[in-house]
Amino acid sequence: MAELFIEGVEVVKSHVEDLIDSHPDVFPPALLEKVKSLTGLPSIATVLIIIAILAGMACFEQTQTLLIYTAGLIYPLKATHRQIKLKKDAKPWLAYWICFILYMRTRSMVPSLIPSLPYEFVWQLVFVIFLCHPSTQGAALIHDRVTRPLLYPALDLRAAPTPLARGGGGGGGEAEA
């Protein structure tokens, strides 16, 4: 069993060495030698560490996006469904969905701006929770002060409804019956 493992490691090692040798523009030999002299690590170990770090960063970014979507979708979907099922006013949740969709659209259109902010993941998660938590009425606040004044005139909606915050809704409503 150990021999099979060692054989597999040797195969991977030869493939990585071939990759390094065939792409000197990506893996400059002088740079790899300098790293080797500083760290004592062979070139193959340096390349594998760099690949592992880049793969980890990619996975972490995807995990963050998944958490943002989870926080912004699961509870609000449940609460919206409950409001509709109980035939209660769903306007606060409609305001939430407008704000959340605009946020996610902006986030996808300006991908280079958001990651440059310190603690960007924490800020995004706090913002999504602010939007959907019933006690903050964040969606109503954003809808009444930002979305409504900008969106309704652009769509030429003359009979714009009254602001949600005055109507006692926004960003939440009752999720539990």
From TrEMBL:
Entry annotated with the keyword DNA damage: no
Membrane topology qualifier: Multi-pass membrane protein
InterPro entries cross-referenced by the UniProt entry: TB2_DP1_HVA22
Transmembrane segments: 41-60, 93-110, 122-142
Keywords assigned by UniProt, alphabetized: Membrane, Transmembrane, Transmembrane helix
Subcellular location: Membrane
Main location: membrane
A Pfam family this chain is assigned to: TB2_DP1_HVA22
GO cellular component, one term: membrane
Family listed: Belongs to the DP1 family.
Protein name: Receptor expression-enhancing protein
Native source organism of the sequence: Heterosigma akashiwo (Chromophytic alga)
